Amino acid sequence: MDKYEHGGNIYVYKEDVIDFSSNINPLGFPECIKDSMDVAVLTKYPDVNYAQLKRSISRYVNLKDENIIVGNGASELIYLFVRAFSLKRPLIPSPAFLEYERAVILSGGNPLYYEIPEKDGYVIDADEIVNRLLEVDSVIIGNPNNPTGKGIKRKDVEYIVKEAKKLNLPMMIDEAFVEFIYDYKEYQSLDFIKDYDNLFVVRAATKFFGLPGLRLGYGFGSENLIKRLEAYKEPWTVNAFADAVSRRIFEDVEFMEKTRKYIREEITYLTSEMKKIDELVVFDTLTNFMLLKLKHMHVGDLKEELLKRGILIRDASNFRYLDDRFFRVAVKSHDDNVKLIEAIKEVLK
C-alpha cells in the first residue's frame, strides 16, 4: 500500500462496502445543519477574517476569538504549523497520524520518533518525551493518538508542554478525536493555552461532527502564536458552506452527548467481542476506533476476505512501527458492528 495512504478510500472499490476504515461519527452529522445551506452566500467571498465562524467556536470552547484560527480541515493547520515555525526535527510519538511526518518531510525536515511500546498497550510515557526534548526543535502529538486510540491525561500533557516551553520549543496537540472520549475534559488541553504560548491545539468538524466533506478545521493558541500562523496562511481556505454550518453545530449539545454515550457503549461491545476471538490481539481504546493485531494471518489476506463480505477495514501496516499483522476498525452502527464481528470470526475460525 502507499506510504501515506489513509482510510476512507472507498472510491477504488466497485461494490458498496461498509466502511470501517474511516473514523467518522457513526451517527452522521447534526440534524440542525440541514437548513444551513440557505444561510450560505455563494455570490460573495467569505469573510477573510471569519469573524462569525470564530465567534461560534469561541462560545463552544470558551476562548477568545484572538485565540482561534480556522482552516480547510485539520490537515491544513498541521501543515501550516510546520511551515510557520520552520520545523525540521520534531519529536513524533509513533505510530501516529501519517500527515505529521509528511508535513515535516515536505518542508525539508527529518523527524525524530519515539516508538510507543506495544508491550504497554501503546500508552505514551510523558517522561520518554521530556527526556528527548534536547534533541528536537518541537513536539507533535495526537491526543487521543491515531491509530492506537490511547490518550494522555491533562497532568501529563501539561508536564510535557511546560518542559517544552523551558526550551522554547513549539508543541502541537492534535485533538481531532478528543470529543469522542466520554470524559474528554480529563484529556483536552485548551485550558493550557493562556499559560503556555508555545502550545497549538488542533481540532476539526471532520470526525466528531461527521462532516469530512465539508473540510473545516480549527486551532487554538496564544494570541501571538495565532498571529504567526495567520501570517503564513492563504486567505479564504474555508468555504461559505463550512462558515454557515459552523453557526449551528457547536451549539448542538444534545448531539454531542448522544455521540459520546453511543461511542462508549459500542466500543465496549466491540472490545469485549473482539477479545473473544483467539486469533486477535486487541488494544483498548478511548475513542471511536480500535487497533487490532493478527496473531498468524496477514492483514492483506484478512482485508481481501472481508471485502468479499462487503466490509472494508484499515490496513495499518503503513503506520511507522506497525507491520502487516495490524489493522484498525472504526465504530459504526450496532448492526454493522455485529456484522464485522461475525465476518472476522468466520474468516479467522
TrEMBL record:
The protein, known as: threonine-phosphate decarboxylase
SUPFAM superfamilies: PLP-dependent transferases
Reactions it catalyzes: O-phospho-L-threonine + H(+) = (R)-1-aminopropan-2-yl phosphate + CO2
Domain of life, per lineage: Bacteria
GO biological process, one term: cobalamin biosynthetic process
Record Gene3D superfamilies: Aspartate Aminotransferase, domain 1, Type I PLP-dependent aspartate aminotransferase-like (Major domain)
Uppermost EC category: lyase
Pathway the protein acts in: Cofactor biosynthesis; adenosylcobalamin biosynthesis
Pfam families xrefs: Aminotran_1_2
Main function: Decarboxylates L-threonine-O-3-phosphate to yield (R)-1-amino-2-propanol O-2-phosphate, the precursor for the linkage between the nucleotide loop and the corrin ring in cobalamin.
